Amino acid sequence: MNIVLKLAGLAGAGITATALVAAPATASPAHRHEAHRAAPVFVQTDNSAGNTIVAYDRTDTGSLVQTGSYPTGGRGGALAGAVVDKTASQGSLTYDRSAGLLYAINAGSNTITTFAVHGDRLTHRQILSSGGDFPVSIAAHGNLVYVLNARDGGSIQGYVQVFGVLIRVPAWHRGLGLDPQQTPEFTSTPGQVAFTPDGRKLVVTTKNGSNSVDVFRLGPAGPSAAPTVTSLPGTVPFAVTFDAAGHLALAEAGPNAVATFSIDEAGNLTQLDSALTGQAATCWIVSVDGKLYLSNAGSGSVSGYTVDQSGALSPLGNTHTDGGTVDAAASSDGHNLYVQTGAAGNVDAFRIEAGGALTALGSVTVPGAVGGEGIVAL
Q1: DSSP letter, residue 334
Q2: What is the largest CA-CA distance in the chain?
Q3: What element of type H or E holds 2?
């Protein structure tokens, strides 16, 4: 903690956090007298008229019931060419379990918002600059938080979290050097920032911007000056997760595939296995209990795989969803999968069976969330 406090002091004039009083929120009158459930689901609308986090409780069967709505104080945004996936990214809404904080990106305002989480209720804490243009993804590990900005060639910006307050550290900013004029924008901008499980490295996917996975090593002075770059020509690397063995699992939108990799100490990736989904626009990926689920925006489906300790993949088949399948989140108990579908702004709920098959539990329409991305399941 001493190191964290010293870093916070060094940030000095770089502190850009604006503390806010609780923002207006709505909740059903009947629910005000109910005990908060321990495992809510939060969904981001990414609405350009005003970004909002909509809260849901999970019922005993795993279906969703809306309980509240919380404005972020910022605006959503849309990358040129995007239809059902306005930010064309994964991780635009992130839960920091150790701090009890929810982090949301406001792509149209170049800001991020923090909320304190109290069961299924949120308390507005801060709005901060994203340190760049059009933030699309945010990741947390320990006392560190990094945001990925998509435009102006792409960049990452780091923050330190001290007693529930985020402080931007200007020295923890790195440009990605992508071509800001490359088109179409929604496939040419970076897709996700994520920590490795040990928190020692930061992973960035560049999609068609450079068809690479960039890995920054992290130290007391922040990210390495330049990333270790693994070039994956034609794959359009979109989103990542990590399996139980710590292997990186990558959704590749080019061949519509999933691939697993080991990462060495220097940040180089070595492929372990790959498999074609046979679907269209395979872009998002989530890991739960030895299984991977990939969202296929062009097919309206989710593709499932088991992954063993060596990173080998075995297919579980495809499951139909509503149109425009995008971001997804698994409940922390591993019982349910919740999938955003951007065509109508729905969230489709599924029960994860013992063997990994998905059973549909119904769908809810999130107000003002057509094309929205960002979902967290506790």
Answers
A1: S
A2: 55
A3: helix 2-11
> What is the C-alpha to C-alpha distance for residues 23 and 31, in angstroms, rounded to an integer?
19
Of 131, 152, 133, which is closest to residue 15 (Cα–Cα)?
131
Complete edge-to-edge strand list for the sheet that includes strand 121-129:
18-19, 121-129, 111-118, 101-106, 93-96
Q: Which tokens belong to 8?
A: 């916070």
The third-level CATH classification (topology) of the domain covering 2-27+38-377 is Methylamine Dehydrogenase; Chain H (2.130.10)
Distance CA 321, CA 343 (A): 11
CA 94, 201, 168, 176 torsion: positive or negative? Answer: negative
Minimal CA–CA distance to 317: which of 260, 259, 362, 356?
A: 356
Distance set, CA 47 to CA 18, 20, 67, 107, 148 (Å)? 22, 21, 19, 10, 19
* Rg over CA atoms, the chain: 19
Cis peptide before 170 (omega within 30 of 0): no
pTM for the predicted model, two decimal places:
0.92
Residues in the chain: 378
Domain ranges in the chain are 2-27+38-377
d(CA 270, CA 72): 39
CA angle 144, 145, 146 (to 5 degrees): 125
Cα angle value 123/285/269 (rounded, 5°): 115
How high is the pLDDT of residue 25? 53
- The residue behind tokens 């919740």 is 338
Say how far apart CA 359 and CA 350 lie, in whole Å. Answer: 5
Q: How far apart are CA 345 and CA 338, in angstroms?
A: 13
Q: Which residues pair with 113 in a beta bridge?
A: 104, 127
Q: Residue 330 corresponds to which tokens in the numbers above?
A: 């698994």
Name the phi and psi angles at 282, rounded to 5: -80, 105
Enumerate residue ranges in the chain where pLDDT < 70.
Answer: 1-38
Measure the CA–CA gap between 151 and 18, rounded to whole angstroms.
24
Helix-then-strand count for the chain, H and E? 2, 31
Q: How far apart are CA 71 and CA 20, in angstroms?
A: 12
